[in-house]
Amino acid sequence: MPASCTSCMGALQVIKALSYTSEPLFVQTLTNVCLRTNRVVPKVCHGMIEEQAPIAQKVARTMEVDGRDGLLFCAAVMNSCPYPEVEPWTLDFPKEKPSNPKQFTSTGETMTVLQLSDWHVDPSYQEGADAICNDPICCRSASTNHSNVIKPASKWGEYTCDPPARLIESMLKYIPTIEKNISFGIMTGDVPPHEIWSTLPFMKTKQIHDSAYALLHSHFDEEDKINTPLYPAVGNHEAAPTNIFPLNSSDIPVDEQHDYLSLGWLYKTLAKNWSGWLSGKPELFKQTDTGSYVTRPMEGLKLISLNTNFCYNLNWWLYQRPAEKDPNGVLSWLIDQLQESEDLGERAWIIGHIPPGDADCFHDYSNYYHQIVERYAPHVIAGQFFGHTHLDETQIFYRGGQQEASEAISVAYIAPSITPYLRNNPGFRVYKVDKSTFEVVDSMTYMADLDQANTWTDEPNWHLEYSAKEAYGSSIAPTTETSPLTAEWWHNVTSDMETNIDTFEKYWWHRGRLSPKTKECDGHCRSVTICNIRAGKSEDRCDYYNPVLFTHGSYHHHSDKIFNTSIQQWPAISGEYKLI
User: Fold this and answer.
1) Does the annotation place 118 within a ligand binding site?
2) pTM score, two decimals?
3) Is there a binding annotation on residue 370?
4) Which molecular function GO terms apply here (predicted)?
5) How many degrees, rounded to 5, is the angle at CA 162 between CA 245 and CA 142?
6) Is residue 277 part of a domain?
7) Residue 388 is assigned to a ligand binding site
């Protein structure tokens, strides 16, 4: 076992021993350790530990830190240990997959669907504040030495900051100028800013939600504006403390001081803010314990919104023993919904925040989710849509673990973020969707060139960045005007990337919306990126510590992620904390 793994497991042993002390002593000790690293600014140490420690203390007491629990934590969070093998679990399905499922025939007509994601609006953004600072996010008066401002924040945003509300409102005003008839929109999570050290009291986060959704309703509910329903999903930053979503079985402190940890306030807030867009029927509304729900935007299509934070490796409750394979029954509920759709002969879309194929999703949960996709795709599941990474990406799901075009059965679209943090241009997505099959016919990304913000006069220069069909169509991945972008087609695009550097370069630069802050991608980075596109299961990724790869001298070390904005593995790379 490498020294990094031994050190991590040893540190967990110390934390477990400390967990039996009083909460104030536990918080103070961890805060002192954080401060001594000199890698985290003091206010972040104090705030982050104070908010997260009550959960960590409860969970650490139950963890088998010298066994699988500790190994899983050090692999998933710190990337310092070999990832443990997936615990086998074969899901039970109500019926076998039909040998002759219902076929859906295209009429050639399309509709338009909008996807927004990860806007992370910052109420504290201040024009003229320093965009270069020691805090995790800048452009705030509190993080600025006003006598020595290095880079004044523009009116519209900066690459090192979460955006001001005016950037988001400008986007909402722009959308109807390019799409007059949007059938519906989806919002795949993360409204509050990346201020993970200061989310409490929870009323502070609640107020951010209320203000954000009031702005959305003012655009989506007005005839002369976007004027269409919006269907949201729950992001990890929706909670206060950030990332913390309890299970029904979680040992939540019951005293009044910690009552907010149940997240009852959040689910009630979301239910209120989403009202008017969703059906109010109790059997279709699962807000009480997960924030998941189903609705039917139109006849023949069911939209299933999943709270995928129950697979998130920074949700500390998931480490509490005994570990649950299906936290809060979300997966079994998903099966029920998909089975109903199969029985009714309708299609289904799945939306969520954290992509099941992302490095942040536990391998076990991703494996189980993938079994569901294999069972119900492609005849029921017509599309999957996620956010979280802040990048413009796709992930492909395969039948039987065979990464071949003929076995590709579903594709997940990961939307670009509205926030430019870190080092991406702000963007949003528009899909052209077949009205009969509900399959994506084209995916179009819009963006604004934030490096030109100081030249904008009235509004940002929102514009079409690219069409997937036009950018990636080739002799290897041919298209027609009406043909859908199937999982097989996307696999062929990755094959073209392997042999045609120009195709890969398009994908690489589109990931960050042509940001001038994006770093070049070398040959190793290229192979890792293509591998990750094909990883509908997170265990198939090439950017985590895989002991098999490690023994063959091919340790993939997240080179693409650290240099291209997502910092999802900062603990392993730079000793910092995850913010996304």
Assistant:
1) yes
2) 0.93
3) no
4) hydrolase activity, acting on glycosyl bonds; metal ion binding; sphingomyelin phosphodiesterase activity
5) 100
6) yes
7) yes
Reading the block at residue 254, the tokens are 């019951």
- For residue range 8-59, list pLDDT tens digits in order: 999 999 999 999 999 999 999 999 999 998 889 999 999 999 999 999 999 9
Average pLDDT over residues 57-79: 94
Q: Is 571 helix (H, G, I), strand (E, B) or coil?
A: helix
Domain range for 350 is: 110-125+162-573
Overall average pLDDT of the 221-225 stretch: 95
* Whether the Cβ atoms of residue 387 and residue 419 lie closer than 8 Å to each other: no
Tell me the pairing of strands 347-351 and 381-386: parallel
pLDDT digits (tens, 9 = 90+) for 97-128: 999 999 999 999 999 999 999 999 999 999 99
Total domains in the fold of the chain = 2
**In angstroms, rounded to a whole number, what is the distance separating the alpha carbons of residues 520 and 525?**
9
**pLDDT band per the 50, 70, 90 thresholds, residue 286:** low
Q: Which residues contact 250 (CB under 8 A, 6 or more apart)?
A: 58, 317, 320
Does 576 score more than 80 pLDDT? no
From the list 354, 362, 357, 399, the residue with the least C-alpha distance to 85 is 362
Sequence-ordered list of residues with C-beta below 8 angstroms from that of 437, at least 6 positions apart, any chain: 104, 105, 106, 347, 382, 484
231/439 Cα distance (integer angstroms): 18
Q: Clarify whether residues 134 and 169 are in a common domain.
A: no
Domain membership of residue 21 (yes or no) is no
The verdict on whether residue 236 carries a ligand-binding annotation is yes
Q: Does residue 260 share a domain with residue 148?
A: no
120 annotated as belonging to a binding site for a ligand:
yes
CATH code at position 480: 3.60.21.10
CA-based nearest residue to 407, from 397, 421, 420, 395? 397
